[in-house]
């Protein structure tokens, strides 16, 4: 596959993603309006009079027809403006750009953690099928899957912060009293590396460990099961039997040929798990006061903050489309057949 | 560096950072960290959608012409005194003999945070602003008959006059709440635009006051860091240098932070956690009944069978009030039941109603109303208050079942938005007022003007007459007579059954003192100190 065709694939996939995003724009607009709640009542102050509410409805342009509101929203979108959040009072674009890196850093770390536990565990389970390690693998994945992230989050805070005092206070991404880092990428660890600031790097890492682990637990279950299943299927397939008959060294057989083929379903599942972890973020962010988009969206939903909810849904939908494209491309790299089919 | 060496160093680094962190945090003893569920979403109460936390913040970053004094509650906790107005940016004031105007003499030594001196022109600009910007500030000040820019007049640099449209006892206290803040008019004008002549966009993210604290950093809804303003003239200098207000959404996390002494104050732990922490005796818990605030059950007087006063009284006798308080707020409330008679002895508000748990009396009253076999009805409550109101609803459901009333329960996520529809037979609701005058509170709930808070759709000409008269009455003895009359009427007619008066419990570390309960219920850092 030449680089030109890779660029072509990406472009084609991006274009194919557009109808999805258009659908998301329509659905998120309609859903926010259908949800119970009235932003004018919510924001009219402590003791609103009927006139105060009517007046606010006018200020928020809620007195226009739904169609007019939708057209206005589209015009706004075309300018790259997602509107203004009522909860934070800031433009939604600004809010999201501040908060998205926090969520991505947490989710990415969690996924890496989950993979680093799940893949070795799954391989071990498949190689020693029916033996002790296989049972451990099953127990770990079932337990990780059955504990809600909110619970594991609180449990981790209780043990490592409250009882043992090992973890820093669950107050977001860095020590709130610390000297703030120059904000270059929005990713604390990366900013710390760029600024060559190791004390902040350690601080950021220390704050990241517990929430990332709480989140990773939610992903370990499915990833372990899929790795184990895929490895088992590949190990019993014809080409492995053929390779075995040629007396190929075992490590080469398992870790090069079998593993590479077994990685395909793991890759697909990682995509799912990443998406799933983004949604699980909502509760973990709450427990650790993590300033990400999950807590932002939750607050916006409660307040019927239309612009913020729509912006959040659109941003996450875009992220999902991008993840799917990334996975398709990785597929091509891992699997020769996909490349040939092109 | 080989691979093993690298891994060793990395592991050590991580572990030591985890251990070192606490030592670092402990050394910052001149700072206060206050954790609450909500954090300010604006630096100005005049902006659309400014939340309650913003009220508390603006309270400290801006000053007003007058401020409330303080008094001590029976349990030793300090609270604001609504009836004791003290000077802040005004040195003194004088009411015209015919009550047509009040003239304020301003302090001459006041400067804004940027060093600019404050004059009567700033006051005039600030007052014009709350009249002109619409929304909450305008509506709030309307309550005190402050509605027209022509009412506000600069006499000279340090003299400012407010013309009074009518004799309204809410006018003066209105000038001490979180709306008539004094803004740096020159600085604001510099940041105003044609579309935004009052610079609301700018004050949302920037502070332009004379208050005790300057805003050092602000992340909307997430955290605010305040630094003491050395040139503050509005009161005695705060003891703490820096205060951080930080939003921590999970109550469990807030509790853990307080218990580990990483946070100094949490003002909004759920009643259950508060009851635990009080029992542990390790904390300084400052408890004050929420002023002018009532949790109550409204019965729709325009829906059968609640149009019959006997049915309403029957319900009031059927409720096991203490059980409601114990199960919903773990005892953290002032009881509002069990008064010996329906003739109020004083005009304090809220005060206990003459009902108690008496199922026999309830049954008898239902029998008199021809409903001995009971009836079916529905109770609505706000899903956002579910942790507190759901247990209360269940206790009430159980108790009403015993007198034959089959009540179903409906939890509404959009309770606030649907309040104005007034189609709930029964509803649990809460109301709090900023002004201590009982007639002000009553106007919202019992008056026939039918505000959104009159969920019972109560309309009684006698009540309206008493409330209208009380609003005008300047003589305190005559006012007291009227107040006793309308409280008594609310007691006998019971369209609204008080369940309890909530208590605000502020949990602080043992060494953190100086808390004063404020009407806006946020923590005022100006008086806090460490022992």
Features:
A: 342 residues; mainly alpha; 14 helices; B: 531 residues; 4-stranded mixed sheet; 21 strands; 33% helix; globular
Description:
The complex is a heterodimer of chains A (342) and B (531). Chain A has helices spanning 3-34, 39-42, 50-59, 66-78, 92-127, 132-146, 149-163, 188-194, 198-235, 238-245, 250-287, 293-302, 306-334, 336-341. With 342 residues, chain A is an all-alpha fold. Helices cover 76% and strands 0% of the residues of chain A. Chain A starts with a helix and ends with a helix. Chain A is globular, with a radius of gyration of 24 Å. The mean pLDDT of chain A is 84. Chain B has 531 residues and is an alpha+beta fold. Chain B has 17 helices and 21 strands. Chain B has helices spanning 3-26, 52-61, 120-132, 135-142, 171-174, 185-190, 200-205, 251-259, 271-280, 309-318, 321-329, 359-368, 386-401, 415-418, 438-445, 461-472, 476-493; strands at 31-36, 66-72, 78-87, 90-95, 101-106, 152-156, 159-163, 213-219, 223-228, 242-247, 265-266, 284-289, 293-299, 333-335, 375-382, 405-412, 426-432, 496-508, 512-513, 516-517, 529-530. In chain B, the strands form five sheets. In chain B, strands 11, 12, 13, 14, 15, 16, 17 and 18 form an eight-stranded mixed beta sheet that branches. In chain B, helix 11 (321-329) packs antiparallel against helix 13 (386-401), helix 15 (438-445) packs antiparallel against helix 16 (461-472) and helix 16 runs antiparallel to helix 17. Chain B starts with a helix and ends with a strand. Chains A and B meet through helix 3, helix 7, helix 9, helix 11 and helix 12 of A and helix 1, strand 1, helix 4, strand 10 and helix 8 of B.
Outline the fold blueprint.
The complex is a heterodimer of chains A (342) and B (531).
Chain A: H1 3-34, H2 39-42, H3 50-59, H4 66-78, H5 92-127, H6 132-146, H7 149-163, H8 188-194, H9 198-235, H10 238-245, H11 250-287, H12 293-302, H13 306-334, H14 336-341
Helix pairs in contact in A: 1-13, 5-6, 5-9, 5-11, 6-9, 7-9, 7-11, 8-9, 9-11, 11-12, 11-13, 12-13
Chain B: H1 3-26, E1 31-36, H2 52-61, E2 66-72, E3 78-87, E4 90-95, E5 101-106, H3 120-132, H4 135-142, E6 152-156, E7 159-163, H5 171-174, H6 185-190, H7 200-205, E8 213-219, E9 223-228, E10 242-247, H8 251-259, E11 265-266, H9 271-280, E12 284-289, E13 293-299, H10 309-318, H11 321-329, E14 333-335, H12 359-368, E15 375-382, H13 386-401, E16 405-412, H14 415-418, E17 426-432, H15 438-445, H16 461-472, H17 476-493, E18 496-508, E19 512-513, E20 516-517, E21 529-530
Parallel strand pairs in B: 1-10, 3-20, 15-16, 15-17
Antiparallel strand pairs in B: 2-3, 4-5, 5-7, 6-7, 8-9, 9-10, 11-18, 12-18, 13-17, 13-18, 14-18, 19-21
Helix pairs in contact in B: 10-12, 11-13, 15-16, 16-17
């Amino acid at each position: 596959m030449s680089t030109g065709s890779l660029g072509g694939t990406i472009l084609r996939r991006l274009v194919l993603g557009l109808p999805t995003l258009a659908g998301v724009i329509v659905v998120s607009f309609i859903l926010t309006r259908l949800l119970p709640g009235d932003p004018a009542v919510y924001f009219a102050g402590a003791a609103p009079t009927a006139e105060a509410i009517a007046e606010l409805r006018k200020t928020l342009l809620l007195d226009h027809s739904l169609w007019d509101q939708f057209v206005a929203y589209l015009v706004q979108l075309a300018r790259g403006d997602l509107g203004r959040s009522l909860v934070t009072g800031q433009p939604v674009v600004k809010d999201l750009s501040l908060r998205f890196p926090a969520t991505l850093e947490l989710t990415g770390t969690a996924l890496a953690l989950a993979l680093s536990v799940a893949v070795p565990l799954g391989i071990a389970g498949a190689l020693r099928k029916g033996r002790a390690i296989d049972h451990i693998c099953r127990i770990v994945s079932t337990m990780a899957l059955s504990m809600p992230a909110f619970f594991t989050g609180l449990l981790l805070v209780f043990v490592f912060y409250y009882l043992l005092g090992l973890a820093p206070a669950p107050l977001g991404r860095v020590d709130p009293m610390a000297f703030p880092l120059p904000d270059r990428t929005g990713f604390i660890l990366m900013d710390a590396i760029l600024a060559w600031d190791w004390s902040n790097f350690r601080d950021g890492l220390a704050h990241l460990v517990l929430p990332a682990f709480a989140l990773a637990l939610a992903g370990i279950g499915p990833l372990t099961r899929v790795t184990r299943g895929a490895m088992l299927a590949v190990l019993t397939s014809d080409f492995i039997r053929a390779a075995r008959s040629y007396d190929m060294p075992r490590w080469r057989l398992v870790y090069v040929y079998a593993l590479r083929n077994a990685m395909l379903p793991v890759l697909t599942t990682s995509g799912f798990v990443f998406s799933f972890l983004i949604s699980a973020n909502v509760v973990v962010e709450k427990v650790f006061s993590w300033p990400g988009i999950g807590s932002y969206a939750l607050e916006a939903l409660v307040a019927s903050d239309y612009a913020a909810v729509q912006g959040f849904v659109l941003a996450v939908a875009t992220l999902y489309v991008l993840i799917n494209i990334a996975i398709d491309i990785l597929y091509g790299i891992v699997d020769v057949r996909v490349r040939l089919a092109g | 560096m080989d691979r093993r060496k690298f891994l060793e160093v990395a592991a050590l680094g991580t572990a030591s950072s985890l251990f070192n962190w606490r030592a670092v945090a402990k050394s910052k003893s001149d700072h206060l960290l206050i954790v609450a569920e909500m954090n300010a979403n604006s630096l100005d109460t005049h902006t659309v959608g400014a939340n309650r936390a913003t009220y508390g913040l603006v309270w400290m970053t801006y000053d007003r012409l007058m401020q409330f004094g303080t008094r001590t509650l029976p349990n030793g906790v300090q609270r604001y005194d609504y009836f004791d107005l003290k000077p802040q940016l005004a040195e003194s004031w004088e009411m015209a003999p015919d009550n047509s105007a009040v003239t304020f003499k301003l302090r001459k030594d006041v400067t804004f945070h940027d060093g600019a001196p404050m004059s009567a022109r700033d006051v005039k600009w600030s007052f014009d602003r709350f009249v002109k910007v619409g929304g909450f500030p305008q509506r709030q000040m309307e309550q005190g008959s402050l509605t027209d820019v022509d009412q506000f007049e600069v006499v000279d640099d340090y003299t400012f006059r407010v013309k009074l449209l009518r004799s309204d006892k809410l006018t003066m206290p209105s000038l001490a709440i979180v709306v008539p803040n004094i803004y740096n008019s020159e600085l604001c004008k510099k940041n105003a635009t044609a579309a935004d002549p009052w610079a609301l966009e700018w004050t949302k993210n920037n502070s332009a006051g004379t208050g005790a604290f300057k805003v050092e950093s602000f992340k909307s809804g997430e955290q605010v860091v305040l630094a003491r303003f050395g040139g503050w003239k509005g009161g005695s200098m705060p003891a703490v240098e820096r205060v951080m207000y930080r939003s921590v959404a999970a109550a469990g996390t807030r509790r853990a932070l307080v218990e580990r002494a990483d946070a100094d104050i949490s003002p909004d732990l759920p009643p259950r956690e508060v009851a635990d922490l009080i029992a542990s005796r390790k904390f300084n818990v400052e408890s004050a009944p929420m002023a002018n605030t009532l949790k109550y059950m409204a019965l729709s007087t325009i829906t059968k069978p609640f149009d019959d006063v006997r049915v309403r009284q029957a319900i009031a006798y059927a409720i096991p009030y203490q059980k409601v308080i114990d199960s919903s707020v773990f005892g953290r409330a002032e009881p509002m039941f069990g008064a010996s008679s329906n003739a109020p002895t004083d005009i304090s508000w809220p005060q206990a109603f003459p009902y108690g748990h008496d199922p026999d009396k309830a049954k008898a009253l239902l029998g008199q109303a021809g409903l001995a076999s009971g009836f079916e009805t529905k109770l609505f409550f706000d899903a956002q208050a579910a942790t507190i109101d759901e247990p209360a609803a269940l206790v009430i459901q159980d108790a009403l079942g015993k007198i034959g009333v089959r009540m179903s329960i409906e939890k509404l996520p959009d309770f606030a938005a649907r309040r104005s529809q007034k189609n709930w037979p029964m509803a649990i609701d809460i109301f709090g007022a900023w002004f201590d005058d009982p007639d002000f509170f009553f106007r919202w709930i019992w008056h026939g003007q039918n505000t959104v808070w009159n969920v019972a759709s109560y309309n009684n000409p006698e009540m309206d007459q008493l409330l209208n008269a009380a609003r005008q009455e300047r003589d305190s003895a005559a006012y007291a007579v009227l107040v006793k009359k309308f409280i008594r009427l609310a007691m006998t007619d019971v369209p609204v059954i008080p369940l309890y008066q909530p208590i605000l419990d502020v949990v602080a570390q043992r060494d953190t003192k100086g808390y004063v309960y404020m009407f806006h219920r946020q923590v005022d850092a100006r008086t806090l100190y460490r022992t």
